[in-house]
Amino acid sequence: MNDQAGSPPNYEFRKSLKDVHRYPVPEALRVERYLTRPLASLIVRSVYRSRIMPDHLTWASFVVGLSAAAAFLGGSQAYFVAGGILALLSSIFDCADGMLARARNQCTERGAFMDLMLDRIIDFIVLGAMAIGTYRFLGSTAVLIAALLAMALLSLQSTLYYLLLIYLRDTRMGRQAEVRGLYVVVVTMLSILNRPHYFFYLLIGLSLIGIFCQVGLFFRAPRR
User: Fold this and answer.
1) Is the CB of residue 178 less than 8 Å from the CB of residue 22?
2) The domain that contains 39 carries what CATH number?
3) Domain that holds residue 105
4) How many CB atoms lie within 10 A of CB 10?
5) If residue 219 lies in a helix (H) or strand (E), which one and from where to where?
6) Which of 177, 176, 205, 202 is nearest to 189 (CA)?
7) Burial of 133 (0-12, 13-18, 19+ CB in 10 A)
8) Which of 31, 140, 168, 223 is least buried, going by the fewest C-beta atoms within 10 A?
């Protein structure tokens, strides 16, 4: 899109934000709102009047996420720090695609589901790479088992979450973005502190809480 007649109006940050109920994350920990999205808006501003489409940013997020996974496989503190920074950059691009679509009124159901699908794929790949890289770094079988357990529990929690949305006929998406953004920042910080394996212990606890909450919400929901 060129800056000429028929081009979109100036970019509006508020218009690009999601209009959904936020996930129950404490206000002080809403890094997705106060860190990731403001940074993503810089990308959106730079491409707003270009021919770059939201799907292009979705794929950019996916490719950067793969780079983060490759870095985590290195199995050293330097690689962990690089992986954490790349994972954060991937999350920024992931926010930017939807923001660009909303700002331009280019939202589509296919784009939303493609974004969701690629997010889940890259989450699995990055966590798997972190598990392998952490095992290579520490040589601890206990940490590897904890990492695999964390991945399994997160997968179960995500499955129950989307099943509950289907049952409730709730079509709103993206409410887990705040939690995902917080996870990425925690991974980056723990990588810098040379304690990436702590993330898996945290993920086990939070996933268990999420599973119990999803099951509880199902049984409290109106019968259909």
Assistant:
1) yes
2) 1.20.120.1760
3) 25-220
4) 8
5) helix 198-220
6) 202
7) buried
8) 223
